[in-house]
Write a structure and sequence with these properties.
The complex is a heterodimer of chains A (349) and B (348). Chain A is α+β, with helices and mostly antiparallel strands and 349 residues long. Chain A has eight helices and 20 strands. In chain A, helix 4 packs parallel to helix 5. Chain A is globular. The two termini of chain B are 36 Å apart. The chains are: A alpha+beta (349), B alpha+beta (348). Chains A and B meet through helix 5, helix 6, helix 7 and strand 16 of A and helix 6, helix 7, helix 8 and strand 16 of B.
């Protein structure tokens, strides 16, 4: 039995907007599932229906086998986190962390015990009586996480929790969330539009678009084998390289690029996709182009090349030293080539 | 490098807070200089001093050898886009973009104005917004119009403050390439302020790392990444972050507090040091000391493993030809010669 199961879940607003259209999703206990997609894809609406903040137009939600429909939000025992960060400046760390426990029917002793065990876990014990403005940025983050987690619900629902943080804080907070989630094993649904955040956090990534699920798989699989062109475009930074062409005489042809195809392929439009780490610069090359710029990234380097198939990016483990204007050849590694149907966009090879 | 702008001994305080402390910095006449630092480091103040919007308490600002310390912003002929730079709300995007081109003293034909505006709009993907009133723009759109208003001109110097911060990842990636290419094609120097190390590495000709109002190091991206002058600089650049260890030399090897061996060392017996190792220079196998995989992050082309090793959490990059389990035992290995050593310093 799945821990959480969404069955044909839909949401249509009175104005006719179909925000969510027949979403099926099963989460195992302890999984961290990221709902990923651009704004308007239905990810937040899905989360809000699980929280009980929106009523589904159709479909059902089961938590540990029980239909949640009759339960109001406060009875679902889910922890809903919008954003970390803002601590109450006039409250001490202890009071900040205890805040979500008010009105929960806990005895004062039980409250104190919860706060202290959470503080112990996140290394806050020594600063419980300080005020937020006396804390470093890192300490403030740990307090905000403690506040979000102190309730110990059955399920965490997190909606872009790192939204407003600076890049460096986001990274630290992301690691902290994952550490604590792995330790607790609380099943978590996490919404973001940031594919990098999704990839690094998730046990499973659910890519959404237009109110439907495009793909639901391990991050590594979504990355390596995107189900369709939308997923292929959305995942990866820098993104996949594409060439739009035709099947002709047993080969894919786009501009000067000719890629032999094994087996039988009907003639028609096809898009070839390949990630930057599966293309290499070489003297000759299957495809030729002119270097636009090389981006040095420290641990690797991206060479942007203008080709007859459009702008391609090549990942290199070391800086290549190419200058803008250099003529280069590009070689494709067969392992990385993915083919998408020209009409449906589905990955077909 | 031919200098255009030169700052010497700049001090600036706001009440008790020393925003800039004795800053010396030169901007070349044809370079993109990135000022990199965390929030509150003094980056924006530095840019405002360059623009003439902020008067320093001490020090001089000169341009091409002329002292401009007391010059008004308009006399310096610099174009700037600040993070919270207001557009004229009841004007269209087009009119906002035209504004700097219609300033007194600029004699551009209407055709030239239209060409420049449309060129900037295309570059920033805001062509469809040109006739829209600027109060009906999203935050990201407004930011792009602010950049546009900066680049339509041909000033002596561009000053940009976190121009890509609020944009979504895909657009940020595209625009960072476009902005760097644009600058190169115009051959106008640019000072670009950011807290994003990826922008700094990929765009900069040189990076100035700033912290608490002090410039810590100035150098090419390769110099800053590979030869940071202090653990503090090392921490600010590279993602995932560099691993830092406090070590001591024992029989020709750097050893951590628990006695575990990190790497070979050429220092004298008992020398102490802070040592930095980038995640891509630690391989997941081939070493002596055991480590336990605590978290596996998917970073696209590679895994980032967070490993309990040598008594601390260490990040390393591992190839995707195999997968890793939580709790798995591995023996990380530091690639010989790929460590940065600061003798006599402490990592924390």
């Amino acid at each position: 039995m799945s821990f959480l199961r969404l069955e044909s879940l839909s949401k249509t607003y009175p104005d006719g907007t179909e925000a969510v259209r027949g979403v099926d999703l099963s989460c195992e206990a302890g999984e961290l599932i990221v709902l990923l997609g651009p704004s308007g894809c239905g990810k937040t609406t899905t989360l809000r229906m699980v929280a009980g903040l929106e009523k589904p137009s159709a479909g059902r939600i089961f938590l540990e086998g029980a239909d949640m429909a009759p339960w109001p939000p406060q009875r679902r025992d889910v922890g809903f986190v919008f954003q970390f960060y803002a601590l109450y400046p006039h409250l001490t760390v202890r009071e900040n962390v205890a805040f979500p426990l008010e009105d929960r029917g806990l005895s004062p002793d039980a409250q104190v015990q919860r706060v202290e065990s959470m503080a112990e876990r996140l290394g806050l014990a020594a600063i419980l009586d300080r005020y937020p403005n006396q804390l470093s940025g890192g300490d403030q983050q740990r307090v905000s996480l403690a506040r979000a987690m102190v309730r110990q619900p059955r399920l965490y629902l997190m909606d872009e929790p790192l939204g407003t943080l600076d890049a460096d804080l986001r990274l630290a907070m992301r690691e902290l969330i994952r550490d604590q989630q792995l330790r607790d094993g609380v099943t978590t649904l996490y919404v973001t539009h940031d594919q990098e955040e999704a990839m690094s956090l998730a046990d499973r990534v659910v890519v959404m678009e237009g109110g439907t699920i495009r793909q639901s798989a391990r991050a590594a699989d979504v990355y390596a084998d995107p189900a369709d062109l939308f997923v292929a475009h959305f995942i990866g930074s820098p993104g996949m390289n594409f060439a739009e062409g035709q099947v002709c005489d047993g080969a894919f042809r786009a501009g000067e690029l000719v890629w032999p195809l094994a087996g039988e392929w009907p003639a028609g439009a096809l898009t070839l996709g390949i990630r930057p780490e599966y293309v290499r610069l070489s003297g000759e090359g299957t495809l030729r182009g002119q270097v636009l710029v090389e981006e040095y990234m420290g641990s690797c380097s991206y060479v942007h090349v203008e080709t007859s198939c459009g702008r391609w990016v090549i990942r290199s483990d070391v800086a290549t030293g190419h200058r803008p204007g250099d003529l280069v050849g590009i070689e494709l590694e067969a392992d990385g080539v993915r083919l998408f149907d020209g009409q449906s966009g589905r990955c077909i090879g | 490098m031919k200098p255009l702008l030169h700052l010497a001994g700049i001090d600036k305080s706001y009440g008790q807070i020393r925003a800039l402390v004795g800053v010396d910095l030169t901007v070349g006449s044809d370079e993109l200089l990135v000022v990199l630092g965390p929030t509150g480091a003094g980056k924006t103040t530095l840019l405002r001093v360059m623009a003439g919007l902020e008067r320093a308490e001490a020090g001089t600002v000169s341009m091409a050898g002329t002292d401009v310390t007391d010059w008004e912003p308009s006399a310096r002929d610099v174009a700037f886009a600040f993070q919270h730079f207001a557009l004229y709300p009841d004007w269209s995007v087009r009119r906002n973009l035209e504004f700097p081109l219609r300033a007194p003293g600029r004699q551009l034909s209407e055709a030239e104005i239209a060409t420049r505006v449309e060129w900037a709009a295309e570059l920033l993907h805001i062509e469809s917004l040109l006739e829209r009133s600027s109060e009906r723009l999203s935050g990201g759109e407004m930011q792009r119009v602010a950049i546009g208003r900066c680049i339509v001109r041909r000033p002596r110097l561009f000053l940009l403050d976190e121009p890509l911060t609020n944009l979504d990842a895909k657009l940020r990636e595209t625009l960072r390439v476009e902005l760097a290419l644009l600058r190169r094609s115009l051959s106008i120097p640019m000072v670009y302020v950011t807290h994003d190390q990826a922008e700094a590495l990929s765009m900069a000709d040189r990076i100035a790392v700033i912290s608490d109002g002090n410039i810590l190091q100035v150098g090419t991206p390769e110099e800053i990444y590979e030869r940071p002058q202090s653990p503090e600089v090392a921490r600010q650049i590279g993602q995932p972050a560099i691993n830092l260890f406090d070590v001591c030399c024992r029989a020709g090897r750097w050893v951590v507090g628990s006695g575990g061996v990190l790497a070979e060392c050429a220092a004298g017996e008992s020398a102490v040091a802070a040592v930095g190792v980038r995640p891509e220079h630690i391989t997941p196998s081939g070493g002596e000391e055991e480590g336990i995989v605590r978290v596996v992050e998917d970073a696209g082309p590679v895994w980032v493993l967070r490993v309990e090793w040598l008594g601390q959490e260490v990040r390393l990059m591992a190839g995707k030809e195999r997968s890793y389990c939580l709790g798995e035992s591995i023996r990380p290995h530091v690639e010989p010669g790929r460590v940065v050593v600061w003798e006599g310093e402490r990592a924390r």
